[in-house]
Amino acid sequence: METLLTGLGFSFFLYFFISFGISLSFSPVDNYLVNTGAFLDSTVHNRRFVSDSSGSTHTHLSSPQSFSLCAGTLLPSLPPIYHTARVFKAPSKYVFDVKDPGTHMVRLHFHRFSSPSLNLVDSRFHVLVNGLVALTNFSGGNSLGPRVIEYLLCVHSEKLEIAFVPDGESNFAFVNAIEVISAPGDLIPETAQSLIGDKVENFEGLNLQAFEVVHRVTVGGAKVTPFNDSLWRTWLPDDDYFKLSEGSTRVYFSGKIKYQEGGASREVGPDNVYDSARLIESNNASIPNVNLSWEFPVMEDYKYLVRLHFCDIASVSLGLLFFNVYVNGHLAYKDLDPSAVTNYLLASPFYLDFVVDADRSGIVSVAVGPSNKSMAYAVDAILNGVEIMKMNNLMGSFDGKLPAELVLKGSPRRSVDFLLPLIALVCLLLSLSVFMRRRMDKVDSVPWSKLPMDVPETNPKQGKEQLSSKV
């Protein structure tokens, strides 16, 4: 009887644990995973990508001319979604039903494989996501492997559209897979800090903006795959962006990350991001005079959301860690006290959001370092993760300065080629008009004087005599 009760108790505990774990995992209302160009569904990281040939009632492909393409060589190391592609020979679009208004994640998967009939390297096309210009003159990326491009946008309509427009030169576009997922409500908050030089102001309406994820890195740790992220994201190691290794230390944490309301949730950042970090530590009575710095290449003339992830997994006690945060060389946060932010709880994650402008350097820099309140024999700075997200410009574009109307015509490059000579001609005509106007004004402004009335009359013969006498 005791054994039976023990067994029942264990079974109940196991059931409760599994149910509790499942209830904690994020379950999006809108969750479209499309295996484009495939005739069968595929499973990647325990997620089923449904063939766009299955005739789903919630996903509609509108294309006057498209076909499925299979790679000439199937590489077992690649997920099956990259073995096929949907190729478009004319402007086409996917339309998704939106049941949960708000922020949505859109991921586009590209892999430029070749087949006996077509080489995807020769593609060139444009992509629009819900009316925003996402990509122009795109050819699937420059890398040999797959490329995933992620967008976050606020959707309040009942439909979300993704359009593919072939460029006139290549005559075809393609995509390997598409994800459209409704995001948790706390992923993008309403406000952030706008950093203009050394001036910090509130940025309102952040959750109404659109973003392209440019960089997502875990600091000090190993790569985080979609399998280990509740929103199926990839976090790359920071080694390629980290600029100072002298005086820094990597730290790894084997304890429990303590998520709490008001801080970062597991959807904002997974455990595998917060359980590693780089830090500056004072091992004697002096405080190191160094900063940890990272540099991220970006496209100039855009605003960027810089999200910095923090979790004090290194301090031995509360109230010992104080440091400064710098973005683009400017002081963004002075004397940051993680203990105060987390209501005095160690290993509790939080994040800071800053909106900054990218200058002509093409770099967004991030740094952390000791402050005037830093203490000896203690941790003096820490950083766990960084995300850099591009915001669309005033033309509604993530890639260029042309509006969607011109991109939909099929060739922004040709539009530019047409517009530039036209603008040059108008400027030339305006310059010519100004020149002629000034010339006429100059002629009109020549002083006029009355001819003298007492000049004696002479005949030609007298004139000649006068000239000969002068000679």
TrEMBL record:
Residues 46-391 form the Malectin-like domain. The chain crosses the membrane at residues 6-26, 418-436. Gene3D superfamilies: Galactose-binding lectin. It is found in: Membrane. It is a single-pass type I membrane protein. Residues 451-471 are annotated as: Disordered. Pfam families: Malectin_like. Residues 459-471 have a biased composition (Polar residues). Its main location: membrane. Keywords: ATP-binding, Glycoprotein, Kinase, Membrane, Nucleotide-binding, Serine/threonine-protein kinase, Signal, Transferase, Transmembrane, Transmembrane helix. PANTHER family: OS03G0124300 PROTEIN-RELATED, RECEPTOR-LIKE KINASE. This is Malectin-like domain-containing protein. It comes from Hibiscus sabdariffa. The lineage of its organism: Eukaryota, Viridiplantae, Streptophyta, Embryophyta, Tracheophyta.
